Amino acid sequence: MAASALSRAFSTALVGLGGLLWLAAILFMAQTAQNSEQFSRLHPWILGINVAGLVMLVGLLATKLAQLVRDFQGHVIGSRLKARMVLIFGVLATLPILLVYFFAVQFLNKGIDSWFNVEIRKSLDDALVLSRSALETRMREHLADTQLVADELTMSSEPMPGLLETLRQRVGALDIVVATDTGSVIAIGKGLSSEVVPEEVPGEVLLQLRQGRPFVSLEPQPEGGYLVRTAVPMGDSAPGRQRLVVQAVYPVAERLGALADTVQAAYQQFGEKDYLRRPLKASFILTLTVVLLLSLLAAWYGAIFTAQKLVQPIQDLVKGTRAVAEGDLDTRLPLTSRDEMGFLVQSFNDMTKRLRRAREDQLRAQQAAETERTNLAVILARLSTGVVSLEPDLRVRTANRAAGMILGEDLESAVGLSFGELGAGRPGEGLLRQFVESCGARFAAGDVEWREQLTFKAGSGRRVVMCACTPLPGEGDAPGGYVLVFDDITTMLQAQREAAWGEVARRLAHEIKNPLTPIRLSAERMRLKLMPSMSEKDAQLLDRGTETIVQQVEAMKEMVNAFSEYARAPRFEMASLGLNRLVTEVTDLYRAQVMGRGVRLKVALDPALTTVLADQGRLRQMLHNLLTNAVEALEGHPDGEIRVATHLATRDGAEFAEVVVEDNGPGFPRELIGQVFDPYVTTKARGTGLGLAIVRKIVEEHGGSIEADNRPGGGARVRVGLPVDESSRGQAWREQRGPEPRRERA
Amino acid sequence: MSNSQSPRRRSTQEFLRQGAMLFLCFLATAGVTPAAAETVVEVRGASLSLDQDVYELDARLEVSLPEDARKAIEAGLTMRLDYEIELARVRNYMLDATVAKLVQSYELNYHALSQRYLVRNLNTGEQQDFGTLQAALERLTEVRGLPVIDSALVEPGNAYEGRVRAVLDLNSGSEALRWILFWTDDWSATSEWYEWPLPP
Predict the structure, then answer these.
(1) What residue ranges in A60-198 does DSSP mark as E strands?
(2) Interchain CB distance below 8 Å, B20 and A132
(3) In which domain, by residue range, is A692 found?
(4) A650 falls within a domain
(5) Residue B15: closest CA among chain A residues belongs to which residue?
(6) Nearest chain A residue (CA) to B121
(7) Number of domains composing chain A
(8) Which residue ranges form the domains of chain B, and what is each CATH number?
(9) Distance between CA A633 and CA A456 in Å, rounded?
């Protein structure tokens, strides 16, 4: 990302710099358009700027092409299309540029050559020769004049200065100088207007004269025009005498000089240009080449730029589509144009926006459903009611914890199993099996909406479960599954029964106890008043009758007291006490009594069991009732044996004291085994049927549990579980509230 | 025909020209011929002499022009020769202080009509003509009695040093064509500085 941004910044900087350079070049060109001197001065800079622009363009193009090649080799999306477009655009731009370049070079070569064709060169040469001939004619005439002057001077005897001036005026010379052949001036004849004429004889002139040749030359003047310098030796010099020379300088007619200057200037300029023809052509061609290269590079760069512009939205779309396919709905494509491609990009952005909104809505709904489901799961988990939902094909969809606890199996791990498989492999009296059989029979009969109280056998007791089945709404008429809702109402029914019996006991105690005392008192009064006056036979009859009444009243009072005891509200004084010690005390009271009846009393105490949290009086009564029950059960039974044992047991991490009282008597009748703790359920002729009912009440008051069943070898067995401290009492309380302990109690 | 290009500008142009040429040669599109023999300019001797309270310069150069340069002159190009003359006061711990500085410039070109070589003193405007290029070059390469500085400006007791060097270049008489010279062979040359102590 960073590298891409850096590359973009670099390209932008190069383009900006290139633009500035181009602007500078154009400004230079504008400045020099009317001023050739400035152009000559700035020409290298203009060229330099163009070359710099060229270099930058090459750099830019190389960067772009390298990127294009990398993308192509890396199979970047859109790179093939981009390469194809660049190639097409580039070739389309290159062909006409090259064609124009080729013809321009040809035109330049031929055009420049045509400026210097042979005819022009020959014409100028001829003009020069002609001008030179015209001037040479004058020069020869002036040389002849100078020779004449020299001859006159040689032959004349007149004084030289006067003669010299006369001769100068005659030949029209600007000045005439007579000098020795070493250059020493002897006489000068000078006109007034000939200020510029040198008065010395140049060495070049003297050298030529010494060689015996007359001197004549055409001398261009700095300010234009020409002079003709002539020089000849004077006469024949005698040996030993110094030889004299005459130098005369003549003007060239102004008109002729001007014409000659024109010819000279034209010739010189042509010669100069002719000489510079090659570099001129080279410079033009090179300039054209620079322009060609700039155009070519700009065209290729433009091709890449245009292709990039065209392909970029496609690349963005592909990337965006991939991102959306991968789930990134936040993708937004840059809107680079307002054309059809822009419309496509806009549509894509709208689509992703709508998709994102839809997904957010879906997520919200999903979260709400999830929350609902979690809440429902929490509610179901906390429910004491068992809930099992089934698929339409009766496979278990869900089952809460309470369902497993009620049915004594882990149903949460049975999710996915068919309903029929749940009961398979279970013991014959397993609650789950009985439950599956009961419900399965309903499903098999096509009954999908029902409510029924089901009674199951559970060990020594029975379990009553209220179960309801309801079909779940599905698609169309077919049900979407079924839900079984059931609750263990055994305890509730038991409580209802207990409450009813408590009320009966209270009413019995109230309604029956009150008339007992008047009955007894009346019987005793009748006996006391009537016996003395009665015959012995009648008195005996009255005595037996009243005695029977009194005994039966006492018996009835005892029974009413027992009812009162059952119905009275408990008054507890909970304290930590030694269970083993209490068991020892109570069993010691019975030991002598049972031994007299030929019954053995065996006590096995667990030394690990130290204390329990209980009301000592109530616990003592519980033990009395249990032992009394056992003793009465062994009446008339030879070789009777009562076993009392204590254990320190652990259940679900909590410690319990277990007291087991068993005998080897006839045991509980099988048909009554689920009702032995109910009031007035007894198999004894004289029993009230409240002993075990009171025991269970005491156990429940202590937060314990109790079970009654028959031993495998015969005889009854009662197991009492008592909490040892508050924590286990709490545990027992929780279990008592929950579904688990129900299994323990009968 | 005057040309006031300074040496620094010429060297900048030279740098740009060489850079452009190098680049264009690299592009293999240039048709410019490579430089032939080089122009040689060397100061053979120079001295300052006092004449009527004015120090005058006598200097002598040696100039060797390659054949192409001679042909270029005959074709109409102008040769320019600049004498750069400096008189500096020598200082021990600082850069020397330039007391006088002047440039004496000459132009040489060929006059086809008269078949004469014209030498023009650009400082005075004087012009001389010569029958041969060699004679003209001899005139150019010999400086006699060129006034440099008034003796009053030369403080007695200080050490002075004279310096002279020559810069030779070919140029076009036409402004319009001068830029083309950028693409021609380089016949310009600059001599080393010739330095000598001024006699006390």
Answers:
(1) 175-180, 185-190
(2) no
(3) 572-743
(4) yes
(5) A44
(6) A222
(7) 5
(8) 7-197 (2.60.40)
(9) 28
